[in-house]
């Protein structure tokens, strides 16, 4: 149960809702102990004011702690709070701010969270900054790591490493194929053989707490649509693989995931795809509405733009509203393609006929020229040769026309197939709904 107002709901999907408002207030509308995971990236305490707003560094820790407090009430006893924090330099100084560590101490000492484990997100694609210390004076190296605190409400949060195993290295794969060859059973003084232990295939390697995830997305549907519409995208998105890791690690399908500083709603999109329920909270109605672009695969940018405009004013329902726009587009594509197919078929029929006629003329001209060669006078031979050459040219032209008509036909057919495929892709995007129906049925049968 939640107490959200309709005005706060920007769009709803089969598994989640994008909300607009202050997270402190929105968290207050959630029932006690109902959330499995909050994964979020707050506005950082950076020096320069960014478009999405920053608190000054001193006040920052207290400001963030209010959210930590409100989050704790709604987390289940098995729940986790994962906070991604960028590092910062102190104002005008080549020395570091301690704010990520102050956040850590505040959350553990005062809010009584547990630090389940500290993570570091290494973004190899990070640009050097601040320019003054790194590029100009060259007295500091590139800062490419964010701290990611995994807090838990109790000492025993829900977690399963088996859900986030990494592919084994090539060496490990070889070892697993033939453990005896690689590890000659080394008997320790305890008579414990390590070869057997290392030769067990656990389905993958256990990841470390250094998460290497490049933040280089430039081709997502969200960005493509923003670019096509000339709209500025959210300036501080994290890569989908960051929330993905924690959602898979710390929750099960059907669990509830919340992002309290959702920006472009990377978290909601990933949760939707992974079959988790989700709420995303964002202060800016505009950012919240723009994030609908993540849920409209296949829609033409101008249609997606219509839903973005609607989401600024009222709650948009997905997938229904997206599908109806897509269906109209697919229908138009199909109708246009049908017309093009009919025209191409007609052109093809004419070209085939012309081609046949030209072929006949060529044969006649050839026969005539051969006959004249055998019996006729030279000037007649020349006339017949010229007729043959013309017929050959004619034939080549008609053949080219026929090939072009065939190409047009196959392209028109492809366009109509595209319309159908777009609709199928769109439905496939939301396909894990089936799973939710199963969860509901299961819940009903338990009640
Ligand atoms: C660093 S961005 C999050 C980006 C997000 N992880 C993504 O991938 O797009 C932080 C967001 O928090 C929002 N925000 C700031 N204060 C907030 C508040 N009190 N309640 C809800 N959202 C807030 C900002 O508008 C901004 O969009």
Can you characterise this structure?
The protein is α/β, with parallel strands linked by helices and 447 residues long. The protein has three domains: 6-165 and 209-314, Vaccinia Virus protein VP39 (Rossmann fold), CATH 3.40.50; 167-205, no CATH class; 324-429, Orthogonal Bundle (Helix Hairpins). The protein is built from 15 helices and ten strands. The protein has helices spanning 23-28, 57-74, 99-110, 131-136, 170-177, 179-182, 194-198, 221-229, 241-250, 266-273, 285-290, 301-311, 320-375, 378-429, 433-446, and strands spanning 9-12, 16-20, 35-40, 75-85, 114-122, 145-152, 210-212, 256-259, 277-282, 316-317. It has a ten-stranded mixed sheet, sandwiched between helices. Helix 10 links the parallel strand 8 and strand 9. Helix 8 (221-229) crosses helix 12 and helix 13 runs antiparallel to helix 14 (378-429). The longest helix has 56 residues, at 320-375. The structure holds S-adenosylmethionine.
């Amino acid at each position: 149960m939640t107490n959200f107002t309709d005005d706060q709901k920007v769009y709803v999907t089969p598994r989640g809702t994008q909300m607009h408002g202050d997270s402190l207030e929105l968290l207050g509308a959630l029932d006690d102990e109902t959330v499995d995971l909050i994964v979020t990236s707050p506005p950082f305490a950076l020096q320069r004011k960014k478009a999405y707003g920053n608190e000054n560094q001193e006040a920052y820790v207290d400001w963030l702690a209010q959210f930590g407090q409100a989050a704790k009430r709604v987390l289940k006893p098995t729940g986790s709070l994962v906070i991604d924090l960028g590092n910062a330099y102190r104002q005008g100084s080549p020395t570091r701010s301690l704010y990520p560590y102050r956040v850590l101490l505040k959350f553990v000492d005062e809010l009584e969270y547990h630090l389940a484990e500290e993570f570091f997100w290494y973004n190899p694609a990070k640009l050097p900054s601040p320019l003054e210390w790194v590029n100009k004076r060259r007295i500091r190296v590139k800062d490419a790591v964010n701290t990611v605190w995994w807090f838990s409400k109790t000492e025993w949060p829900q977690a399963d490493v088996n859900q986030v195993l990494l592919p084994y290295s090539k060496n490990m794969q070889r070892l697993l194929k033939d453990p005896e060859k690689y590890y000659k059973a080394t008997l320790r003084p305890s008579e414990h053989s390590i070869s057997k232990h290392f030769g067990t295939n656990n389905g993958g390697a256990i990841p470390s707490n250094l998460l290497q995830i490049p933040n280089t997305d430039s081709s997502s549907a969200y960005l493509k649509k923003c670019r096509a519409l000339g709209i500025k995208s959210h300036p501080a998105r994290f890569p989908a693989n960051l929330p993905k890791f924690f959602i898979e690690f710390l929750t099960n399908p059907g669990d509830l995931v919340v992002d309290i500083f959702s920006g472009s709603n990377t978290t909601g999109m990933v949760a939707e795809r992974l079959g988790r329920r989700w709420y995303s909270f964002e202060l800016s109605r505009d950012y919240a509405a723009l994030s609908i672009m993540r849920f409209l695969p296949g829609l033409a940018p101008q249609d997606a733009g219509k839903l973005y405009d609607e989401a600024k004013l009222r709650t948009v329902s997905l997938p229904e509203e997206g599908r109806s726009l897509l269906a109209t587009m697919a229908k138009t594509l199909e109708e246009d393609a049908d017309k093009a197919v009919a025209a191409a078929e007609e052109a093809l029929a004419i070209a085939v006929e012309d081609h046949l006629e030209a072929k006949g003329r060529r044969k006649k001209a050839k026969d005539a020229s051969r006959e004249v060669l055998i019996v006729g006078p030279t000037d007649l031979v020349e006339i017949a040769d010229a007729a043959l050459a013309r017929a050959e040219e004619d034939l080549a032209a008609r053949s080219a026309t026929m090939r072009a008509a065939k190409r047009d036909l196959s392209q028109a057919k492809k366009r109509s197939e595209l319309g159908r495929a777009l609709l199928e892709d769109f439905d496939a995007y939301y396909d894990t709904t089936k799973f939710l129906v199963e969860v509901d049925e299961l819940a009903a049968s338990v009640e």
